[in-house]
Amino acid sequence: MPQNENLKIAGKTYDPSDYQSNSLEAQGLAITHEQTSDTLTEGTIDAKIDDVNGKDIEIPRTGYDGDK
Q1: Which of 3, 32, 33, 60 is the most core-located residue (most Cβ within 10 A)?
Q2: Beta partners for residue 52, in sequence order
Q3: Model confidence over 9-62: pLDDT tens digits?
Q4: Which of the four pLDDT bands, split at 50, 70 and 90, describes residue 3?
Q5: Which burial class, exposed, middle or buried, applies to 34 when counting CB atoms under 10 A from its CB (0-12, 13-18, 19+)?
Q6: How many CB atoms lie within 10 A of CB 39?
Q7: How many CB atoms lie within 10 A of CB 30?
Q8: How far is CA 40 from CA 33, 43, 45, 49, 66, in A?
Q9: Does some domain include residue 63?
Q10: Which run of H or E residues covers position 58?
């Protein structure tokens, strides 16, 4: 891979449209962003909200849908 191509990938940042992208890199950024957000919110990467009224709740692995 040419050096310029590496720099283009390394300089990419998350964008909400990455969830709908066909690009493997963009989808990877979307998933990583979701995991990071969940970790900062909940403190874990297993995508669960711990012990809500005695039950763990799974966090869905879908992106934000502003049309709902």
Answers
A1: 33
A2: 55
A3: 777 888 889 889 898 888 888 888 888 887 777 656 666 666 667 787 777 777
A4: low
A5: buried
A6: 13
A7: 21
A8: 11, 5, 9, 12, 22
A9: no
A10: strand 55-58
Based on the structure, what is the number of domains in the chain?
1
The pTM is what? Answer: 0.49
Q: CA 30 to CA 19: how far, in whole Å?
A: 6
Residue 66 domain flag = no
pLDDT of residue 1: 55
Domain-located, residue 65:
no
Q: How far is CA 1 from CA 4, 6, 10, 21, in A?
A: 8, 7, 13, 22
Domain that holds residue 29: 3-58
> In whole angstroms, what is the distance from residue 60 CA to residue 20 CA?
16
